[in-house]
Amino acid sequence: MNSAPRLARSSARTSSSQWACFFCRNTRTQQSQLQFGLHSLRRNASTSNPRGGAAAQQSQQVAPSMEQIRAHYNRKNQTVAYYTISLILGTVALSYGSVPLYKMICQTTGWGGQPVRAHGGSYDGDISNRLVPITSANRIKVTFNASVSDELPWKFVPQQREVRVLPGETALAFYKATNKGDKDIIGVATYSVTPAQCAPYFSKIQCFCFEEQRLNAGETVDMPVFFYLDPDLLNDLNMKGVETVTLNYTFFKARYDNNGRFKAPAVA
């Protein structure tokens, strides 16, 4: 009686084990096929782009260290610092040299109403060839102005209000300066000519401008100005109708830098 159930259970286990082995074999086969497919894809990718793999390996091998990165940025910072310092020094040098450079250009070309110095003029040849009065031309009236800075206790006036000269004719004028203070003072004068188009033709042979003038307390001195009007002004259309020229002088108190060197006043 018990043999029949036992036979049934053994046949059931046999059939279930057969089905279990069937599913296990299918699962292992699918896993092996999947692993084979992934391996094939990896091998194809590595063989199709060998340069990319080599480049990646090389990039990993030559990656810069932190010390190299710091050295690189240190060099860049030093370069920027050098350029900045050079720019600052150049700006300072230009600011110190701008005043004398501007004065030299104005004295040579007559820009800004600055008279041309006869010994440094813009023409060639002997100056005596220029000093020939043009008698056929009309005389030009030259007037004189004088002023003093507020911080300079001087009295500064022209001794004549005007002179009339021919182009090419020399003229001598005088200014008078008096130190009204109780101390010795050094002053320096700047000058200009109006109208401005006449400045290139107003040539000074001798003057006291841009030179230190020391006056003792209560002292009075005469300061001469020896000049002429260049005959070339007759050929300048801008000078047509100009009958009056004004020479302006202004005295300032001389200033010195920390090293005791004289500092020329700024040209207006």
Automatic annotation (TrEMBL):
Molecular function GO labels: copper ion binding
Primary localization class, coarse: mitochondrion
Keywords for the protein's UniProt record, in alphabetical order: Membrane, Transmembrane, Transmembrane helix
Any Pfam family hit: CtaG_Cox11
Region spans: Disordered: 43-63
Family matches, as SUPFAM superfamilies: Ctag/Cox11
Location in the cell: Mitochondrion inner membrane
UniProt key word Signal: no
Transmembrane segments: 80-99
Membrane topology reported for the UniProt record: Single-pass membrane protein
UniProt entry tagged with the keyword Membrane: yes
GO annotation, cellular component aspect: mitochondrial inner membrane; mitochondrial matrix
Role of this protein: Exerts its effect at some terminal stage of cytochrome c oxidase synthesis, probably by being involved in the insertion of the copper B into subunit I.
Protein name in the entry: Cytochrome-c oxidase assembly protein
Organism name: Metarhizium guizhouense (strain ARSEF 977)
